[in-house]
């Protein structure tokens, strides 16, 4: 297998087509990329902005260039010697009338050829949560009618622009008669004869007959655990791999599958040993990918979490936390907030999925001669779902793995330690079902229960943490990132080094990312916000001043002030991470653009928090007040505030730029395959999606790289405009290409400084006689210098070198100077002018 040396993630749609991607190939080649890493390219819904709502997995989307455009892009990549990695979506497809398979299921019900392709409960009619109100109310309003399909001429049930096909048996031979139906009673009667039931979108959480992706009813689960379904949904994917057009696959949401290991075994067998495969998988603290999965690793969320240990000053977080908690009268700690978020998911957002499991558990209990009230089973099941610390276990029809059984035992122990009132008998019963301790008559039901349970724990975890807690607990927004622990352990450099050692051992060729289409904010915004931990007193004082300055914009509502102090804290921190480095408050056009983007983010943040407003039940008065407050921050008559804000956060901006370069160098040199998310080779100060899916200015990026100039590190403007970051990336990516074995196979060796060790980070990669030695700054703001940029490593510092690095001759990859070492590396006076060191053996 030829592994990537570096990938470049490109988001198709929103203007990005195959031909536009082809035009970028020379730029990617010059940057040092080995593989283009493409977002889903298969036909998706007509308004799709991301491609994960696939409508036809066996067609390349005409909207982005179709097969002809794809082939042209592949040819351009091959001519440049670049490979292609495709993001594929095995877990779900669009539950849309645009999806031929889904539409056929709607029309023919359980008789459809595709009825078992989707994860549907066929013990009842297929539920379609598409109505704006209850069926009877919609019918009474005259919004449902029988019409003729303009494409086929067949009678359909029309709801505004949506045309739902009728089962042929309900109209065959009497089409004209059916088309004449206009009275509401007859429309209702005809609807009742269909294999589907139209229902209000509000009822989806409690009454859905198909498995969905998380809580997105527009995405229906696909049963790729069925070999026929696997083959039907992977025909084009396998063709592209076998033809040599595609060299790697990124598997979206692997935890959604009924049997991830079984699927991966089938896929590996189908694509052969030379196809590079990584999985989107969020690992809990201390969790590793199952060793028997035939993949190279994950897409790297855990790498982002590890980086925070290198760049967050954990010793000062208590100061920040005390001030943050003082903002609320009844502030709950993160653990309490996490429990509340999970309880909300279990009792409301995933009520239907929980009810299905409770009903199944009650049935198994009867079969086992241990009848148990459903209320007790529900309480016990809820506590188990809440107590889960990882996304899922990986049991199969044959049972649970030993480590999964041990995890279940830990979950039960945690429930007991927490002291929540729950039936011990009900807990034991559910645990027994999951472990397979049931009578033979209940074995199949137990397998079904285990599968559904395992497919539910991940969505509950994700929606509780990523899409609820991370918008409620706003202590330090840079920590609220996909893959991170919501309740952070102590931050330490030792922890980071240990994570990298494990990464080298367990997934040296997994992807290491710092920005993705799903991260909560761009890598450079996150790096800037890490710096808040270095100077909490400065930040706290600034927030107090800003709140006082803008106090007149706070509105008093019946349910409290809007925004409340905690949300003000969040707004100022989000704004601080978001502004471009050279922000000009007098540039009205830019200010207006930034305001629009920020308000879109803020509305989403308020609704995701699910406290005073929500997606399903928005509090318009509250949202209007908070968005009005934020608009005031950008307003012309408040321009003095915006200017003062930008001046106050300047030290954080500069420390963030230093952090950004440090995390970039670490990503490029540490174990794993570095991924550059589109445009982040310049800067990425984006907010949560859709903001992070905007197209970069490739003309500017290409032009700057084409100049081939290495910026002067002492030139502060090179830090501010992103040219230094881009140039460092290009330099180090070409180094990775020249020494692929070193980075693919080389050991990770932590190094320690004899002084100022708290402000430096050093490590080496070693493979035989080859080595790379890295020294980068950290905590630059905490040094107390008048000017943060450019940061310096400082003289008089000694890095201790182990035997494999002693007495070697190195070359500085930036300055090309040569350096001799003994058993130490001495950072002499010249290091006063160095902001980072990357040395390679010569």
Describe the structure concisely.
This protein is α/β, with parallel strands linked by helices. Helix content is 42%, strand content 15%. It has an 8-stranded parallel beta sheet with strand order 16-15-14-5-2-1-20-17.
What does this structure look like?
- The chain has 842 residues and is of the alpha/beta class.
- Strands 16-15-14-5-2-1-20-17 form an eight-stranded parallel β-sheet.
- α1 (18-31) links the parallel β1 and β2.
Tell me how many strands there are.
28
By DSSP (H or I, 4+ residues per run), the number of helices equals 29
What topology, given as strand order, has the largest sheet?
16-15-14-5-2-1-20-17
**Quick check: average pLDDT?**
95
Low-confidence stretches: none
Structural class, from helix and strand content?
A: alpha/beta
Residue share in helix: 40-55%
What's the main sheet like?
8 strands, parallel
Shape: globular
Bin the strand percentage.
5-15%
Roughly how many Å apart are the termini?
28 Å
């Amino acid at each position: 297998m030829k592994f990537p040396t570096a990938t470049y993630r490109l988001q198709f749609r929103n203007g990005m087509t195959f031909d536009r991607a082809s035009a970028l190939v020379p730029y990617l080649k010059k940057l040092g990329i080995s593989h283009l890493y493409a977002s889903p390219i298969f036909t998706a819904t007509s308004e799709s902005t991301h491609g994960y709502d696939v409508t036809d997995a066996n067609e390349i989307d005409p909207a982005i260039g179709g097969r002809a455009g794809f082939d042209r892009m592949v040819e351009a990549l091959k001519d440049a010697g670049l490979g292609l990695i495709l993001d594929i979506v095995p877990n779900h497809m669009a539950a849309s009338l645009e999806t031929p398979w889904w539409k056929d299921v709607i029309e023919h019900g359980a008789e459809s050829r595709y009825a078992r392709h989707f994860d549907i409960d066929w013990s009842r009619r297929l539920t379609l949560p598409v109505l704006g109100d209850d069926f009877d109310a919609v019918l009474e309003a005259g919004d449902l009618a029988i019409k003729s399909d303009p494409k086929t001429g067949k009678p359909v049930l029309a709801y505004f622009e949506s045309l739902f096909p009728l089962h042929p048996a309900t109209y065959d031979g009497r089409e004209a008669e059916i088309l004449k139906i206009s009275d509401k009673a007859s429309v209702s009667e005809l609807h009742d004869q269909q294999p589907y039931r139209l229902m209000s979108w509000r009822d989806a959480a409690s009454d859905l007959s198909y498995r969905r992706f998380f809580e997105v009813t527009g995405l229906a689960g696909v049963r790729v655990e069925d070999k026929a379904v696997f083959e039907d949904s992977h025909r084009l994917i396998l063709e592209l791999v076998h033809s040599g057009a595609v060299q790697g696959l990124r598997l979206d949401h692997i935890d959604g599958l009924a049997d991830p290991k079984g699927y991966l075994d089938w896929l590996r067998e189908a694509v052969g040993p030379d196809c590079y495969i990584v999985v989107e998988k969020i690992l809990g603290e201390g969790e590793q990918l199952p060793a028997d999965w035939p993949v190279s690793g994950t897409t790297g969320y855990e790498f982002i979490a590890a980086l925070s240990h290198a760049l967050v000053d954990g010793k000062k977080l208590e100061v920040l936390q005390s001030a943050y908690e003082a903002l609320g009268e009844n502030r709950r700690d993160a653990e309490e907030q996490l429990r509340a978020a999970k309880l909300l998911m279990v009792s409301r957002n995933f009520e239907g999925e929980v009810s299905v499991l409770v009903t199944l558990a009650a049935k198994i209990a009867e079969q086992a001669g241990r009848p148990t009230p459903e209320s007790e089973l529900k309480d016990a099941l809820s506590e188990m779902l809440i107590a889960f610390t990882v996304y899922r276990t990986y049991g199969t029809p044959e049972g649970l793995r030993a480590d999964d059984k041990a995890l279940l035992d830990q979950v039960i122990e945690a429930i007991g330690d927490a002291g929540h009132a729950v039936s011990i008998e009900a807990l034991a019963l559910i645990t027994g079902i999951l472990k397979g301790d049931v009578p033979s008559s209940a074995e199949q039901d137990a397998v079904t229960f285990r599968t559904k349970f395992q497919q539910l724990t991940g969505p509950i975890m994700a929606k509780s943490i990523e899409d609820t807690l991370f918008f409620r607990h706003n202590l330090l927004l840079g920590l609220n990132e996909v893959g991170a622990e919501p309740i952070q352990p102590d931050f330490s450099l030792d922890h980071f080094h240990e994570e990298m050692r494990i990464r080298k051992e367990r997934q040296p060729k997994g992807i290491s990312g710092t920005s993705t289409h799903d991260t909560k904010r761009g890598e450079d915004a996150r790096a800037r916000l890490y710096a808040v931990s270095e100077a909490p007193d400065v930040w706290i004082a600034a927030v107090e001043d800003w709140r006082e300055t803008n106090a007149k914009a706070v509105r008093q509502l019946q349910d409290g002030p809007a925004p409340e102090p905690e949300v003000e804290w969040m707004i100022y921190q989000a704004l601080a991470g978001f502004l471009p480095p050279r922000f000009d408050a007098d540039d009205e056009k830019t200010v207006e653009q930034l305001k629009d983007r920020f308000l879109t983010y803020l509305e989403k943040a308020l609704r995701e928090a699910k406290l005073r407003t929500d997606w399903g039940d928005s509090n318009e008065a509250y949202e209007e007040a908070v968005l009005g407050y934020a608009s005031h921050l950008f307003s012309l008559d408040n321009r003095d505030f915006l200017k003062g804000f930008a001046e106050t956060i300047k030290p954080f901006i500069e420390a963030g730029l230093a952090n950004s370069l440090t995390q970039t160098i670490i990503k490029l040199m540490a174990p794993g395959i570095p991924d550059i998310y589109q445009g982040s080779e310049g800067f990425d100060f984006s907010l949560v999606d859709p903001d992070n899916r905007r197209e970069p200015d490739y003309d500017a990026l290409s032009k700057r790289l084409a100049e081939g100039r290495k910026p002067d590190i002492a030139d502060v403007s090179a830090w501010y405009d992103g040219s230094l970051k881009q140039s460092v990336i290009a330099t180090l990516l070409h180094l990775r290409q020249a020494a692929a074995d070193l980075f693919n196979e080389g050991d990770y060796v932590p190094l320690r400084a004899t002084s100022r060790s708290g402000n430096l980070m050093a490590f080496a990669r070693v493979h035989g006689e080859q080595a790379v030695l890295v020294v980068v700054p950290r905590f630059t703001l905490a040094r107390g210098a008048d000017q943060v940029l450019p940061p310096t490593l400082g003289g008089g510092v000694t890095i201790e070198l182990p035997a494999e690095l002693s007495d070697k001759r190195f070359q500085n990859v930036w300055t090309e100077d040569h350096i001799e070492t003994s058993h130490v590396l001495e950072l002499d006076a010249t290091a006063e002018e160095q902001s980072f060191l990357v040395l390679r053996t010569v």
